[in-house]
Amino acid sequence: MKKAFLFFVSLIVFLFLADFSTAEVRIGKKSIPEILPLKLRYKAGETLYYRLVRQNFNFKMDGTRSGEMKAVAYFIRTRLEDDSQGRVNERFTWKSFWFGQTLTSSPLKLVEFKQAENFSLLYSANDAEAINKFDFSSLPRTFDGFFFMIMTWDAVTFDGAIRPTEYLSIPDEARIGAEFSDKHGSYDLAFSYPPLVTDSKYSFSGKNWVKVLGVSLVRNIPCAIIEFANLENRVDMNILLKPMEIRTRGFEHFWGKTYLSLKDGRVVRGELFGPVAMLQDIQTQGQMKSDHSEFLVIGYLEMDLLSEEEFNSELRKVNKEK
């Protein structure tokens, strides 16, 4: 699985759970499962509802805040029939996307990207090349459209990092403490959003790991906690905003957790955190020398499963604020 760029880790209290495995370890009067089910098992035709929030905070190298970015998306995912190879298939459909950024200390304002509404993609978490098959040709060539493309990658990160593929051998169930690693090795994920973004790539180092941490209760749902990390990755991005040409180079690590329902393997919550050290050169037509800057981006990503009622209620609230 090709994973996306930046994000968040927060704290959830561990609870002792019973009745989810025949193999258990006793702790006092309570018990936790020793072997946890990990396979995605929600039924074909069923629809899940999610909120996805990404925040990036920019800092100069002296620690001064120099801006921020925020994006909020609501989407649904529907389980389809597995393909002929037995791989999971799902349809992701976006219902709302809001995006805003500021490069100063002024308050950030979110603006709706209306073209995201009802935009749909097919995705298989078992296909390591899945996001290379996404088609964004119908989206307008704007900066909002580019960040919406990135958010579609973010939406599959918490599955893509921990589901079995041809490179990542994760079993249907695993013992607490089990560790795995993606064997894809180092590779480049080329990306573009022409004519705005061209000849860009995200280079994965191949230094990664996945670990079954334990169990937790999230939204009153017993969950397996799967931790993952991807280290020493690089990004090289070229943006054309006439009359400016912007080249950005960066170095990133990211760490995350996926909380999987013990009942059917659906993602109940995702948290990801990633710092990126950036170098940026801006060349403006008519200038002999480019403007150079160096900064640090601290990125957070959170994804939460909602009930259908919560999802519709939040959408109504968002629409009233337009």
Q: In terms of topology, how is this protein built?
A:
Elements (H helix, E strand, L loop, with lengths): L23 E4 L2 E4 L1 E3 L9 E14 L4 E15 L10 E13 L8 E2 L7 E4 L19 H18 L12 E3 L3 E2 L6 E7 L3 E8 L2 E12 L2 E21 L2 E18 L5 E18 L6 E16 L1 H13 L2
Provide a count of the helices: 2
Overall pLDDT confidence? 89
Shape: globular
Overall tally of domains: 1
Instruction: Enter the CATH topology name.
Output: Lipovitellin-phosvitin complex, beta-sheet shell regions
For the record, the CATH class is: Mainly Beta
Give start-end ranges of low-pLDDT stretches: 1-30
Walkthrough of the structure:
The chain is mostly beta strands and 322 residues long. It has one domain: Lipovitellin-phosvitin complex, beta-sheet shell regions (Roll). Helix content is 10%, strand content 51%. The strands form three sheets. Strands 4, 5, 6, 7, 8, 10, 11, 12, 13, 14, 15, 16 and 17 form a 13-stranded antiparallel beta sheet that branches. A two-stranded antiparallel sheet has the order 1-2. It has a two-stranded antiparallel ribbon with strand order 3-9. A hairpin with a 3-residue loop joins strand 11 (187-193) and strand 12. The radius of gyration is 20 Å and the shape is globular. The two termini are 36 Å apart. The model is unreliable at 1-30 (pLDDT under 50).
